[in-house]
Design a protein that fits this description.
Blueprint (H helix, E strand, L loop, with lengths): L1 H29 L7 H8 L21 E12 L2 E2 L11 E9 L2 E11 L4 E22 L10 E2 L1 E21 L8 E21 L7 E22 L4 E12 L2 E2 L3 E3 L11 E2 L3 E12 L1
Antiparallel strand pairs: 1-4, 1-14, 2-3, 3-5, 4-5, 5-6, 5-7, 7-8, 8-9, 9-10, 9-12, 10-14, 11-13
């Protein structure tokens, strides 16, 4: 019996091997790419240590993905500018209650921003604010009793004021709804510096026909601002909005007053107490 079984063993082994090979072949045929969906074929072919590439736009991975460019343009109004009183001396005239009234002007800004989070960003901006002069009021004083002979009211005035604000701002963005393309309320504020150039001429007084004064100078001042607005998403990278901006400064020194006659010495430095501007702006933001 042992001998007979030992003779049949090779045949049985061959049959078992053949069945196993056929099953494996049939199994590989079932797993072939011709019978599988494309994504499953790719999953089978993907090496164990490889990672699938995320779809485009799935997330921000580079610093540039958080950057954006911004710009705004709109109308601007500067409050009446108060000029500090200047006492007259034996060698110069003085000013009392002087005020500079400006016409409604324009404001432009350009800048670059960075999204620190989905709801907070920081910006660096530079802009231009322009106003033409409407009028000058106040009183020019002369204690010497010389050419003017007393206190005379000022009138007239023309020219332009150019202001360049350089600001560093922070902005909070609050979605109005839970939708991904929801309009956002935008609240912000910032600090910086403002360079102001004044070219004010044709300042007159009715009491002395032909007498004219002018102020031409520039000054730096500390600046601060607050903004509030709403913006809407126009596309994947573009936002359009409307905003109100308030900007204020500390004192500005425009230099001495000049007269068109050598018989009068100009005042001491003309100093604006502060500038306060109000702007309504159309805003544009482009995200990288």
């Amino acid at each position: 019996m042992i001998a007979q079984n030992s003779k049949k063993l090779p045949i049985q082994l061959l049959i078992a091997v053949a069945c196993t090979s056929a099953a494996q072949a049939d199994s590989m045929s079932f797993l072939s790419s011709d019978t599988l969906p494309l994504n499953l074929t790719q999953a089978v072919a993907l090496p164990a240590n490889a990672q699938a590439t995320p779809p485009s736009g799935a997330g921000k991975t580079a610093i540039s993905d958080y950057l954006y460019l911004m710009g705004d343009v709109g109308v601007e109004m500067t409050q009446d500018v108060n000029i500090g009183n200047i006492s007259s001396t034996a060698n110069s005239t003085g000013l009392n209650g002087a005020q500079l009234k400006l016409n409604t002007g324009m404001r432009f800004d350009l800048g670059i921003g960075y999204d620190v989070t989905s709801w907070f960003s920081v910006e660096a901006t530079a802009g231009l604010i322009w106003n033409s002069v409407d009028s000058v009021s106040g009183t020019v004083t002369d204690t010497t009793g010389g050419f003017i002979g007393g206190d005379l009211p000022l009138s007239g005035g023309s020219g332009n004021i150019y202001n360049i604000p350089i600001m560093f701002n922070g902005k909070f963005r609050i979605p109005i709804t839970k939708e991904s393309n929801s309009p956002q309320i935008v609240l912000g504020g910032g600090i910086g510096a403002l360079w102001s150039d004044a070219d004010v001429n044709s300042i007159t007084t009715a009491a002395v026909p032909g007498l004219e004064a002018s102020v031409s100078g520039n000054s730096w001042a500390f600046a601060y601002q607050a903004t509030a607005g709403v913006d809407w998403k126009l596309g994947n990278n573009l936002h359009l909005g409307i905003a109100y901006a308030f900007l204020g400064t500390t004192e500005l020194n425009y230099g001495k007053t000049n007269f068109n006659t050598n018989q009068l010495v100009g005042t001491a430095d003309v100093k604006a107490d502060a500038l306060y501007t109000h702007s309504i702006l159309a805003t544009l933001r482009y995200e990288f």
